[in-house]
Amino acid sequence: MKAIRRFRIIALGSVFAFIAIFMTLYEHLTLVSSLSNGAASSYHLHHAIIINIISGCFGGMVTGVTLNYIDSKYRNKSFCQSLILVILIFLAVWIVRTIILGFTISEKNHIGFDWIFEAEDLRDIVFWSVMVMLAHIFLQMSNKFGPGKLIPIFTGKYDRPSEERRIFMMLDLKASTTIAERLGHIKYHLFLKKVFSDITNPILKAQGEIYQYVGDEIVISWSVNKANGNPRYAECFFNIQAHLEEKKEDYLDEFGVLPIFKAGAHLGQVIAGEIGLVKRDITYSGDVLNTAARIQGLCNQLESKLLISQHLYNFSSRIDDFWDSKVMGSIPLKGKSESLNLIGLSRK
């Protein structure tokens, strides 16, 4: 999550600096056009570019920091509330920036500082407010589709179905029915909301992609090309449980129960593509999803918190250096005569 937030800050700083350069060049062409009275004697293009690059970069980075803060602290607030807060912070930064720039110019030219609100100021406020609002909207879209998905969607990667080799892990809450009956519907929903929010960081830290929330289950995915044999799925699972253990007292005080997960993982070929007209979504389809679900369904029977397929075990490099593994059983493969061995993983 920290890497994602750093990327947002750097990306917004770079984008806002680029927009500032474009705006400066546009204003320069306007000043030197035949319809203009010309630039002031104190105006220099390279000075204007430098000042606006610094202002744009600083403004973009402040926007990134602000959006990250709101995303972490005000995630439960409505979009309108967070948007108003973003705009207010932007206006405060703009006022501070204008005052600093005004004093700098006044000292350089040996004149007194005089705050004058001109048409250009209103134009800048409206333009950059729109830019900040667009950044906030794009952040919400990124949260909706997942980190790294917006650019492929915009470039049309998923318009046509394509075949991918991916790892899927079905993460399921143990004793969910009992917990739901004890807490009641409303409190159980709040319980799931807190759990899913708390385990997001361990998932992102393990470079996992949250594919779906299905009731009390989360489907997490990794690209085989990006995984490169690294058993991040195991790291993800055990880090999730360790993270929840750290919050044990909070859960017991608020809900009277500590969430415990079981999981099944498998890898294989899937078809990735975008479906739907009114509510479009990126979907994966293939036997690997059904097999992963079947593996997860055997966790209680085989008394294992994390079960993986033999295929995934063979793919994972140096997995025995970090976790204990044991053959727990097997399941028949659909449409094939051979069976698939299941490996149980546990901490050393």
Write a short abstract of this structure.
The chain contains 14 helices and eight strands. It has helices spanning 2-31, 45-73, 79-108, 119-145, 150-154, 176-183, 185-198, 200-205, 224-227, 232-246, 248-254, 287-297, 299-302, 310-315, and strands at residues 162-173, 209-214, 217-223, 261-275, 281-285, 306-309, 323-332, 339-347.
Query: How many DSSP H or I helices?
Result: 14
Strand content: 15-25%
Between the first and last Cα atoms, what is the distance in angstroms?
A: 27 Å
Helix and strand pattern: HHHHHEHHHEEHHHEEHHEHEE
Return the average pLDDT rounded to an integer: 83
Please compute the radius of gyration using only Cα atoms.
27 Å
The helix content is 55-70%
Number of strands: 8
Structural class: alpha+beta
Largest sheet: 8 strands, mixed
Shape: elongated
| Unreliable sequence segments | none
Structural account:
The structure is a single chain. Strands 1, 2, 3, 4, 5, 6, 7 and 8 form an eight-stranded mixed sheet that branches. 56% of the residues lie in helices and 20% in strands. It contains 14 helices and eight strands. It is elongated, with a radius of gyration of 27 Å.
